[in-house]
Amino acid sequence: MGTDDRPPFGDLLRHHREAASLTREELAERAGLSANGIAALERGERRYPYPHTVRALADALALSEEERHAFIAAVPHRRRAMADPPPHDNLPAPVTPLVGRRREVARIRQLLTTSRLVTLTGVGGTGKTRLALQVAAESKDAFPGGRIFVDLSPLDDPRLVPGTIERALDAQQAVGASPEERIARAIGDRTLLLVVDNFEHVIEASTIVSSLLAAAPGLRVLATSRIPLRLYGEQEFRVPPLPLPSDPHRAEQSEAVQLFLQAARAVRPDFTLTPANREAVAAICHRLDGLPLAIELAAARIRLFPPEALLERLSERRATLGTAPRDLPARQQTLRQTFDWSYALLTPEERALLAALGVFACGFTPEAVQAVCLEDGTPTDTLMVLEALHLSSLVERSDEPGGGLRFYLLETVRAYALARLRESGAYDAVRERHARYFLTLAEAAAPALTGAGQTTWLTRLELEHDNLRAALRWAINGGETEVGLRLTGALWRFWVARGLAREGRRWFEAVLAAGPPALDTPEGMSTYCDALIGAATVSMRLGDLDTAEGLLTQCLPLARSLGNPHRVAGTLTQLGHIAVRQGRLAAARQDYQESLEISRANAHPWGIAMAHAGLGDVALAESDYAAARDAFEEACRLVRAEDDQLNLHIVLCQLGHAHLELGATEAARACFEESLSLARAHRNRRGVALALAQHGYLANRLGDIDRALSDYQASLEIYHQNGSRPGIADCLEGIAVVLARGRDPEQAARLLGATGALRAAVGRTPLQIDRAELMRAATTARAALGEATFKAVLAAGAAQPLEEIIDHPLGE
């Protein structure tokens, strides 16, 4: 088969997967990738996978040497991706076809040809989201660069909007760039449609749309919001209700009735219009003003009531439906009426529960409902009431990972429920119970995040993250300083493990801004110490060593006065990490040694392991590789015994480094491979980046230049996305060392200049072993270029924008 006849990479991937009898999910688990990513590769939506992705797939598929070569050869050259970016589509697939709306779809598509920002407005329940998705689905040819859907409904903080758009676009988080710049770079020159849904509750963030439209000329934005964004150039399209039947005898010609029939048949497949019920169905649609959501909710009641009985009950409840208060904005008048009818059909117990459910930001379990929504915790058949609300289409149901049961509210339903809760006078009490329930959850998770069960707890915290955010916001806004400190002190390991150090730092800043709590009790001091340690850790992850050191220095005397050995040892270990990164090895050794002695005296295996790992880092920096190996081996043994896989992958990288310096190449390779496998299995992107960088270091030592550059670039990509300046410096220095060996000494000198400037900004020096490598690389590049040229290129690298360096680390 010639080169031009070889199968596309996606077809070949699917062929090998099916030959191995693997589902996408099974292959994803083996390769440490996502099932969605594999699906995108097979469909050809991602045409330029990175080398480490291809190797992970080849390993997981157990390809023969010949198959492996053909598999890798099927990947198009990445340079083409710069000139011809693949289209990107993530539109959700609607469960049911759109009823009617042909005129609206055509009109909105026409508006998008003349306006770069079109906002669909209207009250809740008019079907803005569904209409926007239909427009996007029918506009594929008009937007060859892709159609991106961004749902803002889970957010309650405008500052989270840029990051949510970035993730939808897979935008690289360039160091020093603003969110608008990163998103604009991801869009580039593509003709792309960005569908931004549910903007009204984070309207303060709408200016990002103006910035993106100015920076990306091929971008069109289709937004949905109950109110206009009020931006220059915005074209508002007010979504009307569905047309109502003008003649009851021809009711089926009405789009409102067609929607009623579709929704009714979802719960009663045999339901049809008959001469007996035709007028009642038409009257129900009129009573509900043609609002799609209200019609769907009414049709779901066909399970329990025939149309005539449903219309009668609605008529009986007319007094309770009434109208909204006159002082509410006009856009909320119909919204209130939309849900009042359904609320009136509920039992008193169902009404009370629905109102209380509004406090949940991202779904809830029956156990959470029992604890939060019942005033005195009195046992009741909560699940039965939830199922009744589910049958009424007011509560949605989903399955938790692991088979658990979970429910959630649509955003419009949640807004209505919260309004009812405020009217009931129970809002403050329910909000407090919500916050304290999720505080209990976070504090139960915290000790498990360093041992057995950490994977389960990380998944649980990720699922409840928006509820935890809501609890934090309640604590901060309500002046509940102790609750805020306890929450952040319990959650920092989760934020670090999931690459959310930036967000964690924002929460710590908000909580600590209130000042220390009352330190006259051991509990208050203990809570404050945990928060200081957590705030220091997220600062370290972001490269802010000065802030981290200040927080830990404040924490240490408090921990000592408490007489809590674990907190003292943990604080000393963190101070040791900072000292190593600043090149203060004697101070680091002293901190680690004291931490080790305290942990040993108190039989704390995890603390002993972390202290040994720190002493191993000191030994590495001092080029005492045998001592470093022994320290890391002891740390590995203890961490394995604790089943702390999140830290095991880090210690394995350290141990592999020591083995490599002692000439034990295969032992080093085994450590790096196990570390990478663990990091992928736990979706720890920072861990993947660390292990890939170590693979690059090993490949360079073995003279495999192409593999070294590939691994360093893959690691750099992840560190770049996470905004980790220390990690970026490590990777760029690794590439410089490789290039200095003759491939491109000029680019090596440029990278050395750039990383020197970055190290100065970060306040972190390379370890002794790395400094030796860098000195050799600098000497080689200087000899190849001459002193004058070397100095000029070095200075140019230091002055060049870091983002340009990262985009082209090989000088392409």
Low-confidence stretches: 78-86, 317-335
Terminus-to-terminus distance: 31 Å
Q: Per the principal axes of the C-alpha atoms, what is the gross shape?
A: globular
Strand content: under 5%
Total helices: the number is 41
Structural class: mainly alpha
Strand element count: 8
Question: C-alpha Rg, in Å?
Answer: 30 Å
Average pLDDT over all residues: 85
Helix content: 55-70%
Strand order of the biggest β-sheet? 1-3-4-5-2-6
Task: Describe the sheet with the most strands.
Answer: 6 strands, parallel
Give an overview in words.
Helix 22 packs across helix 25 (481-497) and helix 26 (501-512) packs antiparallel against helix 27 (522-541). A hairpin with a 5-residue loop joins strand 7 (396-399) and strand 8 (405-408). Residues 78-86 and 317-335 have low confidence and may be disordered. The chain has 812 residues and is mostly helical. The chain has a six-stranded parallel β-sheet with strand order 1-3-4-5-2-6, with helices on both faces. Strands 7-8 form a two-stranded antiparallel ribbon. It is globular and about 90 Å long. It is built from 41 helices and eight strands.
Which helices and strands appear, and what pairs or packs with what?
Elements (H helix, E strand, L loop, with lengths): L8 H11 L4 H8 L3 H9 L7 H11 L3 H9 L5 H5 L4 E2 L12 H13 L2 E5 L6 H10 L8 E6 L9 H9 L9 H9 L4 E6 L9 H9 L3 E6 L9 E5 L16 H13 L10 H10 L4 H9 L6 H10 L1 H4 L8 H15 L3 H10 L8 H8 L8 H10 L4 E4 L5 E4 L2 H14 L2 H19 L8 H10 L1 H13 L3 H17 L3 H12 L9 H20 L3 H18 L2 H17 L3 H17 L3 H17 L3 H18 L2 H17 L3 H17 L3 H17 L3 H18 L2 H15 L5 H18 L5 H18 L1 H13 L2 H6 L5
